[in-house]
Prior knowledge:
The chain is of the alpha+beta class. The protein has helices at 53-65, 68-85, 93-109, 119-125, 127-144, 150-165, 169-190, 199-216, 226-235, 237-254, 260-274, and strands spanning 2-8, 11-15, 21-25, 46-48. A four-stranded antiparallel sheet has the order 1-2-3-4, with helices on one face.
Amino acid sequence: MKIDKIINNNIVSALEPDGKEIIVMGRGIGFGMKPGKEIPESAVEKVFRLDSQNNVDKFKELLVNLPLEHIQVSTEIINYAKSVLNRSLNQNIYITLTDHINFAIHRFKQKMKFSNPLLNEIKTFYKEEYLIGEYAIALIERRIGVSLPVDEAGFIAFHIVNAEFNTAMRDTIDITNLIQNTVGIVKEYFSMEPDEMSLNYQRFVTHLRFLAQRIVTKELLNSGNVEFNHLISEMYPEEYRCSLKIKDYIMETYHHDVTEEETAYLAVHIKRMRL
């Protein structure tokens, strides 16, 4: 690949064979180089491929204006998240998380406090991502000497969830509220407090995460297994009635019709959680 523009000594932009612009990072990769020169493969540490030229331009602006150590620590956190979750993340997280971390550090230095109203929900519904957030604030303290509050672990977790589900922050907040309210319906219906550490509870929450994502992003599921739906309603009548309450709540709040098959699966997960 050939250099298109030199951003600084450690970051350049380059053009791929199809003409798309990418960002390339490597220690000293831009030093003494000129546009048009070939980039040695040995100098490349990280390549950023974003989903639009607009986002490439945004990222370049961040790279020019942000301290290199903020960019590096953000990249390290994202790489750690990918390895822990063992799944890909939307590349735009390199923009959103880097910008957030830079602003969080700025707020800390200005002694500005910013609480996270959904911290408890994040800890409960996004356990893996929250642990990554805790790792992130510990890494920031080691690398930059700034001790961010636990609220920031929650905010960082939210950015990771956004990148997992390929959703906007507003959608992730809606998904979180939907999960919280659905769990609340089950608790109230059965007058129970489920064990949040149990495997069946975590399976229920995971199921709700994907259901909530489909609802918020307006994706529809086909429903054709009539025998399965009837069987579940007969085997678990109370759990099925509870799932119908959830179905009504989702229709009233999000104007989304949960299919009979999805309603039956909710009943199965509720039954498991009650065991």
